[in-house]
Amino acid sequence: TIAFDQMGIFAAPGALSRPSETYSNQAAPVAVNADNTATVTVHGFSACMTQFSLSIGNEMVFEQKAGCSKQVRLTERKTTGSITIELPAIGSKDFISIASAQTAGAITWTHSGAAGNIITFLASYCAFDAPTFEDGDSVTHVTLPFRCLPSSGNDEFSFAFT
Known about the structure:
The chain is mostly beta strands and 162 residues long. The chain has one helix at residues 95-101, and strands spanning 39-42, 45-46, 49-55, 58-63, 71-77, 80-86, 105-111, 119-128, 132-136, 139-148, 158-161.
């Protein structure tokens, strides 16, 4: 599911004729599963992911100052999210120590279909907050809330569509 929250300046609606839709260039949906999302890496560890969420965290402010035009300003961005993976043996990857130390590392995954229907997510510097644990089908999973940190400028994360 992809959801958007927006802020803008009201403009009264007007009467227009309905445009003609073209859906022929829309790629067929591709299920998220082991076949189509075969690559998930968390802090250099090849993980088995069950859930992923991302909030860009834009903070918007509506301004209506005397003598100026109405405007909406983007004043802050704090990108956060969470990833739930099968908990590996501590000897393979100690996510609890990584979270406790606030060690930054990369999260990346690639969801593949045919060419033109591939999406790659990359967040190069993510620090984990307090992990939580859950059991699913007698397998322990860890949910790692994370904060995406910039390396330089506005490069906390990227989506590549190819």
